[in-house]
Amino acid sequence: MTSNSKDPIDREVDEMLKLAKNGKFKPGIYNFCDRWCEKCKDTNRCFLFAQEEQRKTRRLSNTKDSDDEEFWEEAKHSFELTRRLIERSLLEEGLDPKKVLKEAKKQKNWDDNVETRYDQVKCLILARDYMKDVHIFLDNFHRSRFQFYPEFGMEIDFSDVKEKIETISWYHTLLPTKIWRSLYEIEDFEREKDEELRKLMFKDLLKYFRLVKKCIQKSKMAWQNLLKKRKELTPVCRKFIAMLNEIEKNLTYGKLENWGRL
Ligand code: SF4
After folding, report:
1. Is the pTM of the predicted complex or chain greater than 0.90?
2. Quick one: which of 160, 168, 169 has its CA closest to 230?
3. Ligand 1 environment, Cβ below 6 A
């Protein structure tokens, strides 16, 4: 169903749906990736990437005065776009969006205790500690690059380890987020009664776990390579590799182990 409306958001929804239906995208690919689009080989198959490119074009033609104004305008726009997309999909399914919303409000889907419960999960506690410590390390590392700047107007070159530092930086925040997500998906999976649905959910779960493992492996590799280049950082690199090993050892897969090898 397309809209003949002159409303620009409706036209944008039309464009997005057309894009989504053109067959070149791999459904949901962006749910299981590390969101490092710059390094991704699947940009051509990613709907989220295509959407982001559209958004960039829109930003370029945006004439808002300040960054704040632009941010809120963008957030409002995304929210409205999502609302209309959902409404349109429901209408296509022959459902009344107002009725669906009323029903959804009656159901309590969000578990308010989830944060407190996950705060006790060891692998997440360790991943958050790792994130905090790496944040301090990165902060000091970049500060030290500029230690001679006031006197000589020069920063210390770090091109030999730039890629390693970028990798460490990218994954240190992603790791706790992805562990959190996998814990949430495990609970969701364990609550599900329908066997067919459980099989589908399990396939996704494996992808979430692989992503957690990828964050750990990439980070470990980056620390190892950093150590080879900067011997003076040996103790610190070893400390972070040990922390990552400990996180890996404590990853919680619960009853899922009965479903086969991860
Ligand atoms: S393009 Fe970006 S969002 Fe899409 S799959 Fe690749 S990394 Fe993920």
Report:
1. no
2. 160
3. 29-30, 33, 35-37, 40, 42-43, 46, 48-49
Token code pair at residue 66: 């300040």
Q: What is the pLDDT of residues 202-232, one digit of tens each?
A: 889 999 999 999 999 999 999 999 999 999 9
Angstrom CA distances, 214 to 4, 16, 131, 183, stand at: 45, 31, 16, 16
Residues 6+ apart with CB under 8 A from 115: none
Chain centroid, CA 227 distance in Å? 28
Residue 253, φ and ψ in degrees, nearest 5: -110, 0
- As a whole number, mean pLDDT of residues 110-121 equals 79
Local structure of 27: helix, strand or coil: coil
- Residues 73-99: tens digit of each pLDDT: 777 877 787 788 788 878 877 888 888
